[in-house]
Amino acid sequence: MKFRRVESCEEQQMVRTLVRHEQFGEGRVLASGNGQLRISFFGIDGVDSEQIFAQDAVARGFLVPVLLEKGRRCKGPDGACAVVRPIAGGPTVWRSYEVQYESGISSICSEVELEPVPSFSLPSPSSNLAVRQIHHLIEFRNREAFRFAHIQNLRQGGQLAALLSARIDLHPHQAFVAGTVLDDRRKRYIFADEVGLGKTIEAGVVIHDLLSGSAQARIIVCPGPLTQQWLCELYSKFGGQVFTLIDLHAESSIKWASLRKVIVSMSHRFFSLPQSHFCGITGT
């Protein structure tokens, strides 16, 4: 004797409903049976893809019922439309929406008749709550731990963005020196630490902060053998700052009016050029 499994009313109601998956996005349940759900996901490029999920995928949180928010663009029976408000429905019942077409005509449509246009925006907290999509306690704790670490980082950096955004691990004495300079309205200092204590890092943090603020142009003057080191250090460790290394360019090819961030060696002919060549470039 053969036995045939009778599908429950709840399984039947799942067919044609709209669901969302974390990876595949939004889609529609095409079929329900034999312990499986067949979902067609709406492709961003217009190409749909089908996936198979277990029957309890909704109960286990892998699939979440979609609640179309006000203003959400959809394709309805009579063309493009926008959701005005939800009418009725629940997690196992087809939802109905009041929609407005581009012609201005309003209509009541079931979610079976609507195909949402792919959206790149994240669902709002209220819509997540409406469909009972609540994040796990572990995610909440991790988020709070990250927020606390970020606040501690801000406190240790003295609210100085240059100390926080640079790709470096500052030693206490370097942070103190850089912070002292950045806190001063007149930033005219000579870094005279011993060899190997990080004068380049200290100066780099100050330069990075100046470029992030009101400074429109800066010139870095250094010994010839160190020009390429400064060029690489500022790019790799201080926010991808791109400087022009004057020593690598022929004088005739340099567009002085467009220069804003310059590195030049102390022996370059740059210093014998007329002031009119510089067009507002500020030395540092």
Nutshell version of this structure?
Helices cover 26% and strands 25% of the residues.
Record keyword descriptors for this entry.
disordered N terminus; 2 domains; five-stranded antiparallel beta sheet; disordered C terminus; Rossmann fold; 284 residues; 13 strands; elongated; alpha+beta; single chain
Task: Give the helices and strands, then pairings.
Elements (H helix, E strand, L loop, with lengths): L8 H6 L3 E4 L3 E9 L2 E6 L7 E6 L9 E2 L7 E4 L2 E12 L2 E9 L4 E5 L4 E2 L8 H6 L6 H20 L4 H5 L6 H12 L15 H14 L5 E5 L4 H11 L6 E2 L15 E5 L19
Parallel strand pairs: 11-13, 12-13
Antiparallel strand pairs: 1-2, 1-5, 2-3, 3-4, 6-7, 6-10, 7-8, 8-9
Helix pairs in contact: 5-6
Provide an overview of this structure:
The protein has 284 residues and is of the alpha+beta class. It has 2 domains: 11-134, no CATH class; 160-277, Rossmann fold, CATH 3.40.50. The chain is built from 7 helices and 13 strands. It has helices at residues 9-14, 125-130, 137-156, 161-165, 172-183, 199-212, 227-237; strands at residues 18-21, 25-33, 36-41, 49-54, 64-65, 73-76, 79-90, 93-101, 106-110, 115-116, 218-222, 244-245, 261-265. A 5-stranded antiparallel β-sheet has the order 4-3-2-1-5. Helix 5 (172-183) runs parallel beside helix 6. The chain is elongated, with a radius of gyration of 31 Å. The N and C termini lie far apart (92 Å). Mean pLDDT is 77; it is low at 1-7 and 276-284.
